[in-house]
Amino acid sequence: MARSLLKTSSMLARTKLLHQMGLPLYNSSHGFHEEDVRKQLQQFPGGSIDLQKEDSGIGILTLNNPTKMNAISGVMMLQLLEKVIELENWTEGKGLIVHGAKNTFSSGSDLNTVKALRTPEASIDGMALCMFMQNTLTRFMRLPLISVALVQGRALGGGAEFTTACDFR
Q1: Whether pLDDT at 12 is above 80
Q2: Which end of the chain has fewer CB atoms at under 10 Å, N or C?
C-alpha cells in the first residue's frame, strides 16, 4: 500500500488512498462498540463544536462551551466526530484552524460526563470513551488538511490531547 501511495502522482488519488487506510484503531474485536458509546454520550448535553468553511479553503473549528472553559461534553464528542467526517469529504479544504471560544482552548472533558460514566448504571466505561475519542482524533489527524491549534488560555487534559492531533500549535 505504501508503494502505491508513493507512486501515485495525483493528490486526489493519494488522498483517496489515505482515506482507505483510515480504519478505526478500535472496533468490536477490541470489545469496543461505537453505537453503544454514541447512545450513552447523547445523554450529556452542553456546548457545541462549530465548523465554518470559508470559500478560500480554510475551515475554522470552534470548541464552544465557554461557561465551562470549553470542556468537551458528551454531545460535543459526538459533534466532533460529525465535523471530522464532514471535513473528510470537504474536497475544497486546504487548512483548518482549531480554537476555543472566549480565549480558552479547552479544559478537557466535562467532568460531569466523566463522573456519570463511573456509575454502575452506565453502559460504557472510561476505556470505551477513550477508544471513541482516540478513533475520532486519529481520523482528525489523517485529514488531508493542514491543521493549526490556536491555543489561547488553557489546554488541559483532552484539550491538550486535541492540540497534539493538530499539525501545528
Answers
A1: no
A2: N
